[in-house]
Amino acid sequence: MSxxxxxxxxxxxxxxxxxxxxxxxxxxxxxxxxxxAYAALARSETVPALRATRxxxxxxxxxxxxxxxxxxxxxxxxxxxxxxxxxxDGWVTHAGEEVRATVDVRPYSGPExxxxxxxxxLGCAVGGAGGIGSREEGVVLGVGGASTTLAxxxxxxxxxxxxxxxxxxxxQALHASQHATRVTATDLNPRALDFTRLTLALSGAAPAxxxxxxxxxxxxxxxxxxxxxxPPFVISPGARLTYRDGGMGGDDLCRTLVQQTGDRxxxxxxxxxxxxxxxVEGEEWQSxxxxxxxxxxxxxxxxxxxxxxxxxxxxxxxxxxxHRSDPAEYAARYDAWLDEFEARKTKGVGFGWITLRKxxxxxxxNPSVVIEEWPHAVEQPLGxxxxxxxxxxxxxxxxxxxxxxxxxxxxxxxxxxxxxxLPGAEDPEHVVLRQNRGMRRxxxxxxxxxxxxxxxxxxxxxxxxxxxIAQLMNEDPVLLRDxxxxxxxxxxxxxxxxxxxxxx
Length: 504
What we know:
By secondary structure, the protein is an alpha/beta fold. The protein is 38% helix and 24% strand. Helix 12 packs across helix 13. The longest helix is centred in the N-terminal third of the chain and has 17 residues, at 26-42.
């Protein structure tokens, strides 16, 4: 584990003032670097950013110092920062005429445009100066695609208490601090807790309760309104790297985390996790994940990607820089990964999101568990769509077919209709409804479904609309009423139709 001492946060407000004064913010970076160089940083390519920061402004200085991690002349840094304090507090080191950063400080824009800073190990911010490529056990990463994905899918309603498990550099705790009265963050790596403290302080956020330990062990029997975790979910042979390797066999860490959550959530509370799971020979992956859902919880599980075992092993061997090691050592490590997968009869690995919600209906034996594959683009932040999904599940659980036909519905915002068929044909081969918001789903509908969706403005009950369609299409209205509720149910479940609350 790294033994490098970390900065102290006591005078973070003074450093924050200096960073803001220099426009060392997400917007400031984009203005200075331009879109191509800014995008290149996310690919760990630094040459365009170095070329864009050849000036001597405070912003040029801070980008080179904290993002690109290049030595900067002493006088330039002194013009941009309270340098004596930064040296004393450990943010930078001073040797001769050069100043170097001790940590990566990365501007990060909050959901409402807040100017935040994520503090992590040098060269280990995803898209940082050197990429990850680290085999140091206790390294703490900065913000990356997984972090922002989890932040985006999290429901952001105000809550009394939130828990961030495996906090790392504190990104999820920082987001939670904006809508939770009390934030608790845990990590097995004590160095990660120190980084979380720095991230919160430098971002001007309230401090969190910080506890060292694995999974729920550090918080005892406490319960929470919100639980989030981007855990060390990588399925690997052993536990070399704390930030990614869970230390349990196969996908047991993710399974254990999910299964233990039922006792930790308050009624109505949400839990959001990123996870990997094994695709095992002779076992449906949906059944495997369904067995993880704890009693008393509804669940929505979305598989975003599947990799075969060779792709998966190569991805994480590159992540830790093993591909740059001795070829024989690399081959041995690769072999060990494949041995592990063979022993567990694993043919592939899935990646995705797991959302749980504690509900009275689930506790009464009627849980809503939706497990699906959706590799397509979505609109982030997805938190409002996640909340709406569970609200629709609540509605559908309470409605039998007769009740659906008395209900009123409106077409969801930004749903469009596409007609597919040969040019000049009298009728389309099929009709597709497509969302431009949230999950951005598309579904085929027949002429009845298209007509029904097109006239849903909340003014008429579903049954009356179907009767009118039956008359227009010369169909038996009784038969149409019998066969259509399932289609209405599906359109509501997938968010194409929204129930209209009854007038009070």
